[in-house]
Amino acid sequence: MEAYIPYLLALLALVGGIIIGGFSQRNKATGIIKQSEIRAHEIVKKAQRDGDTIKKDKILQAKERFIELKGEHEKEIFQREKKIAEIEKRLRDKESRLSNELNKSKDLNRKLEAKTEQLGIKLEKLEKKMETVSETEKQNIVKLEQIANYSAEEAKEELVKSLQEKAKAAAMEYTQQTLEEAKLTVQQEAKKVVISTIQRIGTEEAIENCVSVFNIESDDIKGRIIGREGRNIRALESATGVEVIVDDTPEAIILSCFDPVRREIARLSLHKLVTDGRIHPARIEEVVQKTKKQIENEIVEVGKRTVIDLGIHGLHPELIRIVGRMKYRSSYGQNLLQHSREVAKLCGVMAVELGLNAKMAKRAGLLHDIGKVPEEETEMPHALLGMEWAEKHGEKKEVCNAIGAHHDEIEMTSLLSPIVQVCDAISGARPGARRQVLDSYVQRLKDLENIAYDFDGVNKAFAIQAGRELRVIVESEKVSDDHAAQLSFEISQKIQTDMTYPGQVKITVIRETRAVNIAK
């Protein structure tokens, strides 16, 4: 027991220390708590003061917002009252107008009733008058029957008979007119074949003259061409048969001859002589002979190329040479070879349209004018001369007859003959093909335009497409759209009555309005 006493004392001391330390910590905690309470009390007072301030501010803001909303509400109420007042005013105005209109309608009803009564009275009077007129008409009919010794039925029969006779006459006239129109339609269909043939073929215009111009670099060469005492120019004229004219025309020498082949030989010979520089009679004869051979070869080559282009086979070499010579021959200013090629194409197209042999038609068309290129002068007509040459070189009877009959020297015995004749006329009459036809063609275009200028409101007129269309430009202020259609019809009628022309003429009236301004 005594052994445990020190331990007990130590334990008591420790417990006592702990108790004493606890009292000191408790005192410290009590101080802190008191300070915290004081601090909290101060914070609560401050919060109360801040809350009162915020409460006062919010109350003031609420009062201001209430005043603002109250003003807006009063303003809205004022506007609504104003609108209601305006609506009430419009309703009062409508009521007054309606009352006025009602009063007017009542007045109109009274007037209508009065007029209805008046019309009823007039209608009764009119019915009485109609009864009187019908009785008078019956009496007049009886009197007329007594005077004319005809009853109404008999008069009706007579009228029907007269109407039947008139109807028969009108029917006969209509039948005759229909027959004439049918004949005209047949002619028009035939013309359509010709016109379609013309339109499908187009060739260039060629005009040949009896004079050729040889251009030189300087006038000094003229003296060398003339030679001493004119011996060179005489040798050239003698060798070629062409008249050489050396005058004051600057840098040019004129070759004159009716034979285009001779003229071409002279031109080529002069070109070779001037290029070579050696010009004397012996040299001239040598060059002329060589040039003749060259032209002959060229003639044959042109003939061969022509028959190949046209698809013609088995032609005699002499006929080929004659065809080549046509290149250097002109007829009324129209190149003969070009004319013959054109006639051949036209004949081929027309033969196809009519269901005939197109190759034979082309052959006849190409050879129809070969009689115009004889090497020696003859008095035989060219159609008969060409037929004689064709027979001599083994052409068929149809082709020979077409050549000989295309100017009616002999009777036509085949369908090819009128085709060749027609195509020959078409080619010769084509605008611009021959000189004497060109003048009348230009005059016809002028006449077409002048007819349009005779109408009011026409500003410009243009004849186009070889005179097959007339375009008329009118003034938009003077001519309306409806009037433009009427103007086109009137111009077409005047052209039909005042002019003679092939085919048909299309009249186009153009009316436009233009507004032009310039931005600067």
Would you mind describing this structure in some detail?
Helix 8 packs antiparallel against helix 9, helix 9 crosses helix 12 (416-429) and helix 11 (397-405) packs across helix 12 (416-429). This protein has helices at 5-148, 152-200, 220-226, 231-240, 260-276, 281-310, 317-325, 336-354, 358-367, 382-392, 397-405, 416-429, 435-453, 481-498; strands spanning 211-215, 243-245, 252-256, 330-331, 334-335, 458-464, 469-474, 506-510. The protein has 14 helices and eight strands. The protein is flat, with a radius of gyration of 61 Å. It has a three-stranded antiparallel β-sheet with strand order 1-3-2, with helices on one face. With 520 residues, the protein is mainly α.
Give a concise summary.
The relative contact order is 0.04. 70% of the residues lie in helices and 7% in strands. It has 520 residues and is mostly helical.
The proportion of strand residues reads 5-15%
Structural class: mainly alpha
Query: Number of DSSP helices?
Result: 14
Largest β-sheet summary: 3 strands, antiparallel
Helix content: over 70%
Low-pLDDT sequence parts: 202-208
Radius of gyration: 61 Å
Kindly report how far apart the N and C termini lie: 136 Å
Shape: flat
Order of helices and strands: HHEHHEEHHHEEHHHHHHEEHE
Strand order of the largest sheet: 1-3-2
If you average the pLDDT, what whole number results? 79
